[in-house]
DNA sequence: CCTGCACGATACCGATCGGTATCGTGCAGG
DNA sequence: CCTGCACGATACCGATCGGTATCGTGCAGG
């Protein structure tokens, strides 16, 4: 499994499974799930449909695995932000917002893969849909915890505000209705975290 | 109601074009664009594919027309909210938020049709995509105007905040990560509109 | 050295896609 | 009354979809 480059040809190619997942990532993100055929993924991965079906039972299973990896990547990035500011929830939250804001130009007019994929998966029992919903639920729980640690009066409401802002920023980037989205997003989240309280300690 | 048409001529049927658009509306909203075939639309509209192609050049043209009508419906609803509170921009903005909040339970786990459709239309030159982008741009312009009328210090930033909140609320309703979304949305928008200013008149 | 198996290549399957051609008929507008 | 045309029905088109079967080969692990 661990490859060890061997020495097949000049360029060291990744093993087929990785190439397939990379190809799926690029095509699903740029064109959506339904528009991308298994054959197209095979071609971009420089392999064949048969190889794909050797690693994944169905196209849906490949979609689910792609989203699983993507969710894990996001979780890892959030973990990194959190450990960068130990015991400082305010900075953790702002770091998270900065991470999203910095990713916006990359998403450009294609938006967030989770939001987009959900649109193509109306069936609530679809495995990929469950991956997304669990990821979003985890992310919300984490944010509520941070808001509580930061001493915000109503952590659940604050987490909802921040979540709406993050999701809305991605949607607005996609449809191009608002300029300087990243900048505005950071100001909004800072406003929530630094909101003046009614009572003082 | 659809099911079997036992009562033929008793019930006044809408003309085919309206039935097609109604059927498309229901199927696109509940299943997405790509998953719905022209044949399925014809069946639900109790007509044939030929009739659809008599009224619309392509499936894409039908999609664009559906979104055009939907955008017009939203515009009309916003107009109604605006004229309900003449000269009172604060109430207009809150009315707009209430309109969206009340619609959330209906959207349920399927979310906003504009957001969902954008996910399925990666091609920026697609006519339907342009319909959506123009609609969102108009909506933002209207909101900026209301915020300016309400005397908010930075109308563009306030409009962005409100837009993010509205879009984010719809996304979070779809993925189920947050409870009592409508209630939270109203509190957020009220907070923006009633935010204490640095200077007073 | 030997061998099993992942791999790539190729050919195929039924189903469904968007879109077209053709024709008979009922009804609305002149 | 007459007629044109929207309509419904039916049959068809090539392309593509997800998924499968089969086979030869090169290389890694024993």
From TrEMBL, chains A, B:
InterPro entries: Homeodomain-like_sf, HTH-type_TetR-like_transc_reg, HTH_TetR, Tet_transcr_reg_TetR-rel_C_sf. Pfam families: TetR_N. GO terms for molecular function: DNA-binding transcription factor activity; transcription cis-regulatory region binding. Residues 37-56 bind DNA. Signal peptide: none annotated. Keywords: DNA-binding. Gene3D superfamilies: Tetracycline Repressor, domain 2. The keyword Transcription does not apply. The keyword DNA-binding applies. Residues 14-74 form the HTH tetR-type domain. This is TetR family transcriptional regulator. It comes from Streptomyces alfalfae.
């Amino acid at each position: 499994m661990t490859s060890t480059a061997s020495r097949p040809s000049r360029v060291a190619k990744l093993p087929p499974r990785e190439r397939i997942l990379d190809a799926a990532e690029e095509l699903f993100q740029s064109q959506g799930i339904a528009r991308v055929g298994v054959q197209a993924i095979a071609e971009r991965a420089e392999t064949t449909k048969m190889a794909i079906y050797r690693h994944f039972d169905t196209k849906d299973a490949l979609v689910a695995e792609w989203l699983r990896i993507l969710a894990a990547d996001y979780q890892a990035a959030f973990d990194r932000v959190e450990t960068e500011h130990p015991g400082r929830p305010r900075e953790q939250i702002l770091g998270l917002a900065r991470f999203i804001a910095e990713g916006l130009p990359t998403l450009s007019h294609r938006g967030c893969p989770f939001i987009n994929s959900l649109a193509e998966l109306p069936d609530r029992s679809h495995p990929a849909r469950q991956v997304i919903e669990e990821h979003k639920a985890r992310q919300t729980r984490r944010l509520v915890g941070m808001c509580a640690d930061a001493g915000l009066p109503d952590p659940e409401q604050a987490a909802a505000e921040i979540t709406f802002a993050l999701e809305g920023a991605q949607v607005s980037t996609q449809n191009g209705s608002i300029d300087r989205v990243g900048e505005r997003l950071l100001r909004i989240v800072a406003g929530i975290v630094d909101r003046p309280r009614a009572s003082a300690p």
